[in-house]
Specification:
Blueprint: E1 8-15, E2 26-34, H1 38-48, H2 63-76, E3 79-86, H3 90-110, H4 119-142, E4 155-164, H5 170-181, H6 188-194, E5 196-205, H7 213-228, H8 238-250, E6 256-262
Parallel strand pairs: 1-4, 3-6, 4-5
Antiparallel strand pairs: 1-2, 2-3
Helix pairs in contact: 1-2, 2-7, 2-8
């Protein structure tokens, strides 16, 4: 009997500020959940919370929310990927310069606001796309028994990628969703290696609309705080980090993939991308 690869839902968020500053990293985190289990896991999260849930940035006010979230990650053994991106490289400076140059071209061509073309906006889109690819690959690698056999037809499956609403503005959100609607040609390696073909649909929501985004928010926030403040013996986050560290360490090693990288990428948008913008 041929196993069917399941439809997946991703919950994705970031920790840190989107800026050219090179002193601290940006951290991207995502969880992959079988879509058929999403409602059940959401109910478990809301049932376990004895008080209103809050974001990691407000977690210093109530450690109980952090405990609830990391206990759920441990208990459910959810598949997750964390990317810590350090920007203290010459490539980061070059990326930003080229992005700013193309953004100025876009403004002149369009004669209107094109904030989706700003370097930080394209950087965010690029990194979130990479994270989606990592989640698909990691989930597939952890569930090889459910991958079609090498001689089987390539199997399509649905991916609902839920992103935090820090993608601001209707125009930016429309562009963001349109890019993910067209991402399939970039996933040829997934087709060949795993015999699966993801069909990705992007959604942008708040934590109030989708509480499971808090799982990614806390995962990104924890790792950002851990690396950004590690050189400081005393800081505002030490109590919260200490309180949750034991629970984070209990997450089974095979369920989480942590990547810490120095930014080495070239600007991924071609120099003539905005020539026809009007």
């Amino acid at each position: 009997m041929i196993s069917r690869f399941p439809d997946l839902t991703f919950f994705i968020d970031a920790g840190g500020r989107y800026s050219h500053s090179k002193e601290v990293p940006i951290v991207f985190a995502g969880l992959a959940v079988e879509t058929r289990h999403v409602n059940e896991i959401r109910d478990s999260l809301l049932t376990a919370a004895n008080s209103p849930l809050c974001k990691w940035s407000n977690g210093k006010e109530t450690k109980e929310c952090a405990r609830v979230i990391f206990r759920l990650l441990c208990k459910r053994q959810l598949i997750g990927v964390v990317r810590i991106v350090w920007k203290n490289t010459p490539e980061w400076d070059a990326y930003f310069v080229e992005g700013q140059r193309l953004y100025q071209i876009a403004i002149r061509k369009a004669q209107r606001s094109v904030s989706f073309a700003k370097p930080m906006a394209t950087f965010k889109l690029h990194q979130l796309g990479i994270l989606c690819g990592d989640l698909i690959g990691f989930f597939a690698d952890r569930n090889r028994r459910r991958i079609p056999h090498k001689d089987s037809p390539i199997q399509p499956f649905a991916v609902t990628a839920v992103f935090d609403s820090d993608i601001h503005g209707e125009a930016n959100q429309q562009v963001f969703k349109a890019v993910f609607d067209r991402v399939d040609p970039e996933l040829k390696r997934t087709h060949a290696h795993f015999r699966i073909c993801p069909r990705i649909k992007a959604e942008i929501k708040t934590e109030q609309e989708e509480p499971l985004l808090l799982l990614a928010d806390y995962l990104a926030g924890y790792h950002y705080s851990r690396v950004a403040y590690k050189a400081q013996q005393q800081n505002d986050w030490m109590d919260l980090l200490t309180a949750v560290r034991r629970m984070v360490e209990k997450i089974p090693v095979g369920c989480q993939r942590l990547k810490e990288i120095q930014f080495r990428e070239k600007y991924f948008i071609g120099p003539k991308t905005f020539d026809d913008l009007s």
